[in-house]
Design goal:
- The strands form 4 sheets. Strands 2-11-14-13-12-15 form a 6-stranded antiparallel β-barrel. Strands 3-10-8-5 form a 4-stranded antiparallel sheet, with no helix packed on it. Strands 7-6-4-9 form a 4-stranded antiparallel sheet, with no helix packed on it.
- It is built from 6 helices and 20 strands.
- Helix 2 runs antiparallel to helix 3.
- It has a domain of 76 residues: Orthogonal Bundle (Helix Hairpins), CATH 1.10.287.470.
- It is an alpha+beta fold.
Length: 488
């Protein structure tokens, strides 16, 4: 009995010890979680070198470089078709024939009319010679002689008309044989033997010939926002649905100036020439093209997310780097005393924008060195405002749907701001960031070239995330768990 009681007491002691240890562990975890709840999480990326390819995407259809539609200028019944789809033909080959019987009769009739006109001309010549002799002997009047000359001219004109009619009838007869105007491949055939074609109002299309399918082209539509970077000779990579695992290549042949507007979207037709020696590509295929507008190799690059970072409360930020800031005109306005300082303008203390007269008066009071410094400062402010209005400077943290930085243009590189970890001032308890002004180059949508401001090995911040703690339930202002008098 005593042994059973001792065993029960030990069991309860073990249970109490386990419960106490679990409670202490939960309390420690709760404390750590509470402390870390408001600590920002920083993601970084080491600056490295690599390649960047800036590109423009566009879609278009593959077509032969030269394509000819073969029709018929005369009407009749197709008696013979000598080619089919994919038939290879040479210039002058017979493609089809139209029943020539009607046109043979026309030729015979025209030749008979010509023979009659020749006989009439011969008779007019005889009459003219006779009347000439009679007129010389004063046996007929001058009027009768002139009439014989006119009759002879009319007979000659009639013979020429009949001769032209014969030539026209023979041309129509020749057109009963449809010949290939160019060499190439038949890609379309729209007639069968026994079919009647009517060319009374328009020319019926019988065949379509592609001149040379080993040379093709893509007619892509490039938007007005991207056409500025597209130039002739640039390399183009494209894919077609028929060969999803194979990448084809071409070159920009032409960028047309004529705009095309569809639902208020302006695009420009860009022709891409393609080599199709293996004959894998076919007319009409849809090509998803990527035009390589710029390319850099072995350059410093950073993720575009670095341009969207904004420090939060609790993170210390050091000053901007001096080298790039000065290059961008990042001069400060301080009290006078040195050759590089500017006197504070009168409107700065009032926190308002100056008038044009005040700005001119202030600038006139500066020394030549200070005027140059003032000019650089204003240029920096304009560049900063332009960069902010261009987009891509909003939305810090891990989210942020801001646009990537615009690529550099011929107007010059853009000045952007990134944040790097200041290893000299950072401690294990607190990181110190440094705001760095950089000059950006081209961008591929994910990475951006850094022309100046960073070096290989710098650690750039790509996101700052502040965990959100669960808010405590609001106290009932009326007291009591049932809502008091304010409950509805």
């Amino acid at each position: 009995m005593a042994r059973s009681r001792i065993s029960g007491i030990l069991t309860w002691l073990v249970v109490l010890a386990l419960l106490g240890g679990g409670g202490w562990a939960f309390w420690r975890w709760r404390q750590q979680h509470t402390v870390a709840a408001g600590t920002p999480t920083i993601r970084t990326n080491a600056v490295a070198r690599g390649d960047i390819v800036q590109s423009v995407t566009a879609n278009g259809a593959l077509n032969p470089v030269r394509i000819v539609s073969v029709g018929s200028q005369i009407s009749g019944i197709i008696t013979e078709v000598n080619v089919d789809f994919n038939s290879k033909v040479k210039e002058g080959d017979i493609l089809a024939k139209i029943d020539p019987s009607t046109y043979e009769r026309e030729v015979a009739r025209a030749e008979a009319d010509l023979a009659s006109a020749k006989a009439g001309l011969a008779m007019a010549d005889v009459n003219l010679e006779r009347d000439k002799a009679l007129f010389a002997n004063k046996l007929i009047s001058e009027v009768d002689f002139k009439q014989s000359e006119v009759n002879r001219l009319q007979a000659d004109a009639s013979m020429k008309m009949r001769d032209a009619a014969v030539a026209r009838a023979k041309v129509d007869l020749e057109r009963t044989t449809i010949l290939a105007p160019i060499g190439g491949m038949i890609i379309s055939r729209k007639v069968e033997a026994g079919q009647t074609v009517a060319a009374s109002f328009n020319t019926p299309e019988l065949f379509t010939i592609a001149n040379d399918l080993s040379k093709m082209q893509i007619e892509t539509m490039v938007s007005e926002a991207d056409v500025g970077g597209v130039e002739e000779g640039q390399k183009v990579n494209f894919l077609v649905d028929a060969f999803p695992n194979r990448q084809f290549s071409g070159r920009v042949k032409q960028v047309r100036y004529a705009p095309t507007t569809n639902q208020n979207v302006v695009t420009y037709t860009t022709i891409v020439e393609v080599d199709n020696k293996d004959m894998k590509l076919r007319p009409g295929m849809t090509a998803n093209a990527t035009i390589l507008t710029a390319q850099r190799t072995n350059v410093i690059r950073v993720p575009n997310a670095a341009f969207r970072v904004r420090p939060t409360d609790g993170i210390r930020v050091a000053s901007t780097n001096d080298a790039v800031a000065k290059a961008a005109g990042n001069n400060r306005m301080g009290p006078p005393g040195g050759s590089g300082d500017l006197p504070p303008p009168p409107w700065a203390s009032e926190g308002r924008r100056p008038t044009q007269e005040e700005r001119e008066k202030y600038e006139a009071s500066l020394t030549p060195e200070q005027k140059e410094q003032y000019r650089q400062m204003r240029e920096r402010m304009r560049a900063a405002m332009a960069a902010a209005s261009a987009g891509g400077e909003g939305g810090g943290g891990a989210g942020g749907g801001a646009r990537p930085p615009r690529p550099a243009t011929q107007d010059g590189p853009a000045i952007r701001t990134v944040y790097i970890v200041d290893a000299a001032q950072s401690t294990p308890e607190a990181l110190v960031l440094q705001a760095v002004s950089v000059k950006t180059g081209i961008s591929d949508g994910t990475l951006t070239e850094i022309a100046e401001g960073l070096k290989e090995g710098d650690v750039v911040v790509t996101s700052i995330t502040v965990p959100v703690t669960a808010a405590a339930p609001a106290a009932n202002p009326f007291g009591g768990p049932f809502g008091g008098p304010g409950r509805r």
